[in-house]
Design brief:
CATH superfamily of the largest domain: TolB, C-terminal domain
Strand order of the largest sheet: 4-5-6-7
CATH class of the largest domain: Mainly Beta
Helix content: under 10%
Number of domains: 2
Protein name: LRP1B protein
Largest sheet: 4 strands, antiparallel
Shape: elongated
Mean pLDDT: 89
CATH architecture of the largest domain: 6 Propeller
GO molecular function: Wnt receptor activity; Wnt-protein binding
Structural class: mainly beta
Order of helices and strands: EEEEEEEEEEEEE
Pfam families: FXa_inhibition, Ldl_recept_b
Strand content: 35-45%
Length: 179
């Protein structure tokens, strides 16, 4: 799945399959300016920052069990969001510090370090990487991902895929080759 925010005409948090199909709104009320997302892949939760409502909130992948983690004026200055173990990590753009927020008790906020110029944060750790199983976009014997001549996008499950073409090409009638 692909998760993303939109705060155009109607602010929302959405998800869709990697090929863009099955687009679903998971949060579309009491939301104004969602600017960053973090996923809990194990428990299937989506965390987001709303800088207009000055809050960090969470829902499950279906948009249920919504909770506010923390709220306050300091949220207005946050950008980027990452999750690791019991903590959310973000950047305070006002003083360029990395903040650690306990995701179960939003009052436990600690400044960890200062940076010169940061707008995004990511956690790279072996335990945060999902185990890879065989999937529909694995290279075929000719080396083409999922048998697609250009792009292979996972569809509704890891067993299904959709082929797409680069700009300027169209998908052939076989659904795999681009012309």
């Amino acid at each position: 799945k692909l998760f993303f925010t939109d705060y155009g005409n109607a602010a929302k948090v959405e998800r869709c399959d990697m090929d863009g199909m099955n687009r679903t709104w998971i949060v579309d009320s009491k939301i104004e300016q969602p600017t960053a997302l973090a996923l809990d892949l194990i428990n299937k939760y989506v965390y987001w920052l709303d800088i207009y409502l000055e809050s960090v909130e969470v829902v499950d992948y279906q948009g249920r069990r919504r909770q506010t983690i923390t709220k306050g004026r300091q949220i207005r200055h946050l950008c980027g969001l990452a999750l690791f173990e019991n903590y959310l990590y973000t950047i305070n753009s006002d003083n360029l510090s990395i903040l650690r927020i306990n995701r179960y008790n939003g009052t436990d906020v600690q400044a960890l370090a200062r940076l010169d110029n940061a707008k995004e944060i990511r956690v790279y750790q072996k335990r945060t990487q999902a185990a890879v199983r065989s999937h529909a976009c694995e290279a075929d014997p000719s080396g083409m991902p999922g048998g697609c001549s250009h792009l292979c996008l996972l569809s509704s499950s890891y067993k299904a895929r959709t082929c797409r073409c680069r700009t300027g090409f169209i998908l052939g009638s076989d659904g795999r080759s681009c012309k």
